[in-house]
Amino acid sequence: MLELKGIYKWFNTGNNRTFLLKDVDLSVKAGEFISIMGPSGSGKSTLLNVIGMLDSFDQGEYHFLHESVHKLKEKQRSALYKQYIGFVFQAYHLIDELTVYENIETPLIYQDVKTSERKAMVADILDRFQIVGKKDLFPTQLSGGQQQLVGIARALIARPKLLLADEPTGNLNSKQGEEIMSLFKQLNDEGVTIIQVTHSEKNAGYGSRVINLLDGMIVNEPVVK
Amino acid sequence: MFRNYFIIALRKINRNRLFSFINIAGLGIGISAALVIYLVVQHEFNYEKFQNDRDRIYRVTTDLCFSDGTLFPNSGVPMPMPATVRSEVPGLEMVTHFITANEAKVEVPFVGSESPAVFKKQNQIIYADEFYFRMFTYEWVAGSRQTSLKDPFQVVLTETKAKTYFGEMKPQDIIGRTIIYDDSIKTTVAGVVKDNASRTTDFQFTEFISLSTAQTTGLKYHHGGDEWGSINSSSQMFVKLDGATLAQQVEAQLPALRSRHAKTPAGEKDGMENHLQTLTDLHFNPMYDVFGRRQGSRSTMLGLLAVAIFLLLLGCINFVNLTTAQSALRAKEIGIRKTAGSTKGQLIMQFLSETFILTLAATILSVVMVPWLLNIFSDFIPPEVDFSSLNQPHVWIFLGVLTVAVTFLSGFYPAWVLTKFQPVTVLKSPGFTGKSGTGKPWIRKTLTVTQFVIAQFLIIASFVVSKQIQFSMAKDLGYKKDAIVYFQVPFNFFDEKKDDRRFRLVEKLRLIPELEKVSLGGSPPASNGMSTSDLKVDNGKKLVQMMVEMKYGGENYFDIYQLKLIAGRWLQPSDTVKEYLINETYAKSLGLEDPLKAVGLFVDRGKKIPIVGVIGDFNTTSTHTAIKPLAYSFETENNYVVHLSLKERGDQPDLWKQGLDKVEKEFSQLYPGEELEFTFFDESIATFYKKEQDISRLLKWASGLCIFISCLGLMGLVIYITNTRTKEIGVRKVLGASITQIVTLLSKDFVKVVLVAFFIALPLAWWAMHTWLIDFAYRTRLSWWIFAISGAGMLLLAIIILSARTIRSASANPVKSLRSE
Questions:
Q1: Which of A224, B220, B462, B762 could anchor a disulfide with B699, C-beta 3.0 to 4.6 Å?
Q2: For residues B636 and B623, is the Cβ–Cβ distance under 8 A?
């Protein structure tokens, strides 16, 4: 599905060059459920952002579904991820001024989906996540677990091929975390490719493969904290 | 998609009520000002637009040029000129001539009634020739332009005038009826035309008597008869070019025509120039009056335009500043929307539609504010412009265009700043405060400085203008101005026999105990009108000839106004001119070092008339003009103004009223049915400075509104800054900072902005006010303390606004602000 070849990302402070990502090679097949692990500052989120095309890189090649991402212009890149990728954030990142319904609907609006179709799609997902009763509430009126549920619903609404999740359970208690992870497992079983960043071995256990990062490099052995 | 934008916009506005209010109020005031000035400009430039062939119609004016270079522009022409031009100047399709008449008494006889219906003081009457209605566009209700105004003693009325005189009679039935003017001119109604009242025109006459009527009565001689040398602005001439001829070509033929008929000796100039004035220039050219009507002023409109632009600009600046300062709060939303697939263009559209909604709210508010602004600026606004003027399609179009323009002006930069946020930086940390993404702080600072420069400039300007008005009013003008009242007694040109009632009136008034002194004389020492003569005086060495202002004194006149005699003696009472009293300036202009020596010289006016005294200089008009040569004579024949000096009121506040009531009683016994109008001398002097007082009022309001909008913006910025620095304030307090230290810390940047604005405004204001004051012959000084007080006032206001907020933040409990982190 996607392939990273020799990806480097760095920034310069004075004469020193600090590497965020260093010679990263990664190949992801459709249907995988990958967990990226590593200590703080090891470049997990950066890697996820590069995969999600939210962040650029300085060197290397990135192929996504036969498109060469490193050769695309910003507009084409955004068209690409808008179609195939959904994001889930640790801090949920819902828009406070919009209701649950409107938050979930937003990606569809940007994909020019017709109103009637949007209604049906949002209704489906609300039903599936069992949050129909919450659809007119604003994010601040929900618990953390419920907000993340909305966040996932929003990420899935446009039926992406790839779901990127940056510590999706980081702000949740363990029970809520478990629920979210089993939901991910279920989605993966249905065919959605998932890449998640996590600190927790337990969460990583839900996945099919673990990538360990240290100082921007992929290492073979799990890093001991 | 737009529904989504609008929903979020409305929720944002509702959530940030204070900032929304600041934005809407600021923009609303600006838009309202722009709307009012649009109405004014639109009205003023619409004059005479409806006249057919208006591009070919010109008024002929006459400039009198005197040997000393002074120019007296006159909107009229010599009486014999129109007929001569009509027959002798080629290239003209038509020439019309009319005379504007004074107020008249009108009598309308009715069948079956012994005494006619009487209408006093009817105005807007003209004597017009038969070409008038062919040149200017009128709609006929009865009669026709072919049959009207050809013969003497015909009259055409407008519909409203016809209604006044004949009530509900049908226009057709009014034709042939009789109307008598001033007991002597008996006319027959020949036609009725529609009123011009609803049209934008200065031709608002309501009664048109055939010009030939004036030729056959004594009226002609009152307006100058057949003389080519006499010009009266009531004698108006309009020409219509044939389309192939240029105005200059017609103008060029007029000097030869004049000298041919006026019989000027060969080689001599007659001191006259005729010009052709376009119909559109009529309403705007202050050199030539339009039938005594209010004229439009291009400079006033420029002033209003500047005010409108300032206010609009300030509102937009507030919007830009508040929105960009707050943009960090929206960073998260932008990041989310971008990851959800929004393009930059879509985000810009979203923010512009938000701005549009705010602007739309401001526009609605501005329409509500229009009556208020019309009232504030009423001195500058044509009376025809009112709230109902809004209801025209082009006004709504203007408002629509303005709303969109303001939306772009104030919305584009913030939208651009906001959409530059990179989702990855915004979304990475949950506590993103985004100092880096709020646009360039120097842009916000520059905009705030601009606001305060404008406000500061206007404060200084209004300060200087009021000081100059006070200076002009308080200056020792050289005469007494308090407790003096004057009024005009009626006179009738048509009466053959002399009217001596005014002498009897003065005798009676002298018996009224509340009056100190009574005088019958000419106009008061300072008045709006003036008459001048070309006087020749032999100063012993040579003949000195110059234009001299002429005034008529009278018994007690010099006493009442307390003019000062420097040399010689006062004038002796006389019916006709026997001797002159001149002012010091005239004495000096005669080439005499010692004004005393003027006494005993003679003025050559066909016969030799002696100068018997010299009086101290005083201003005969506003302090705009320097004091000019002046001569007083005593001519009872020309005296129609009664001057009264009132006794000190002391502890009797009603004393003056009692006195004037008695004057009124005596007056109505001698002049039954006539109206008496008192003028207080000090008030009439105040009217010289009406223009300045108007400017002062405009400036005060403009600066007030500018200060209001700027301070709103300042308040918004302070609230924002204190909010974002809550944590810093908490940490500093924990480390032991006092409230004063924190307030100083928070206010320092804003105080700097106000100070910078002051130092930019200072030279600008100094230069502008210096230029304005040069126009006055007697002017107040631009003292340093004007600038100091204005600057200090602005600073104080800013500090009050700042501290209202900063003190609250500084005294908040640090535990609270740190816990939330």
A1: B462
A2: no
pLDDT tier at B239, thresholds 50, 70, 90 = very high
Q: Please give, rounded to a whole number of angstroms, the shortest distance from the CA of A193 to a CA of chain B.
A: 18
Residues pairing with A196 in the sheet: A35, A165
Report the alpha-carbon distance of residue B217 to residue A16 in Å, rounded: 108
Pairing of strands A162-166, A193-197: parallel
Which residue on chain B is closest to A98 by alpha carbon? B8
Task: Give CA–CA dist B696/B467, Å, rounded.
Answer: 10
Chain B: residue nearest A157 by CA? B340
Cross-chain residue pair A95–B341, CB shorter than 8 Å = no
**Which residue carries 């300032």 as its tokens?**
B310
pLDDT at B498: 72
pLDDT digits (tens, 9 = 90+) for B250-275: 888 888 888 888 776 666 667 788 89
Judged by CB atoms closer than 8 Å, whether chains meet at B427 and A93 is answered as yes
Q: Note the helical H segments in B273-343.
A: 298-325, 327-339
Please give the ipTM for the structure prediction. 0.78
Q: Tell me how long chain B is.
A: 821
Read off the pLDDT band of B494 (50, 70, 90). low
Residue B624: name the closest of B765, B477, B472, B470 by CA: B472
Task: For residues A149 and A151, give the distance between their C-alpha atoms in angstroms, rounded to a whole number.
Answer: 5
Out of A54, A78, A90, the one facing B343 most closely (by C-beta) is A78
Examine the pLDDT at B90 and tell me if it is beyond 80.
yes
pLDDT at B327: 77
For an interface test with A, the pick among B6, B11, B336 (most A C-beta atoms closer than 10 Å) comes out as B336
* Average pLDDT of chain A to the nearest whole number: 88
Beta-sheet strands, E only, within B554-705? 565-568, 580-583, 602-605, 607-615, 630-634, 641-646, 679-680
Q: Which of B630, B657, B545 is nearest to B590 (CA)?
A: B545
Instruction: Tell me how crowded residue A8 is: count the other CB atoms within 10 A of its CB.
Output: 16
Of B152, B128, B135, B155, nearest to B143 by C-alpha is B155
Q: How far apart are CA B84 and CA B441, in angstroms?
A: 74
pLDDT band per the 50, 70, 90 thresholds, residue B796: very high
Which bin fits B183, alpha (ψ -120 to 50), beta or left (φ > 0)? Answer: left
- Listed in sequence order, the DSSP H helices in A62-173 are 74-84, 100-110, 115-128, 144-156
Span B290-313, average pLDDT: 83
How far is A37 from A19, CA to CA, in rounded Å? 18
Which of helix, strand or coil describes residue B67?
coil
Q: What token pair was written down for B22? A: 């600041």
Of chain B, the end-to-end C-alpha distance in Å amounts to 36
Q: Kindly list the residues from chain B whose CB atom is less than 8 angstroms away from the CB atom of residue A54.
A: 339, 422-424, 427
CA quadruple B650, B655, B657, B663: dihedral, nearest 10: -130
- A211 — phi, psi (to 5°)? -105, 125
Strands (DSSP E) contained in B742-811 are none
Q: In terms of C-beta density within 10 A (0-12 exposed, 13-18 middle, 19 or more buried), how is residue B3 classed?
A: exposed
Strands (E), chain A: 2-13, 16-28, 33-37, 59-64, 67-68, 85-88, 162-166, 193-197, 209-214, 217-219
Residue A187, helix vs strand vs coil: helix
Q: Please list the alpha-helical segments (H only) found in B475-581.
A: 501-509, 557-560
> Of B721, B800, B23, nearest to B441 (Cα)?
B721
Q: Which two tokens stand for residue B74?
A: 């006159």
Q: Which residues are CB-neighbours of B784 under 8 A, at least 6 positions away?
A: none
Residue-level pLDDT at B820 = 47
**What is residue B67's predicted lDDT score, i.e. its pLDDT?**
62
Q: Are A23 and A47 in contact (CB under 8 A)?
A: no
Beta-carbon separation of B339 and A45 below 8 A: no
Q: Which amino acid is at B512?
A: I
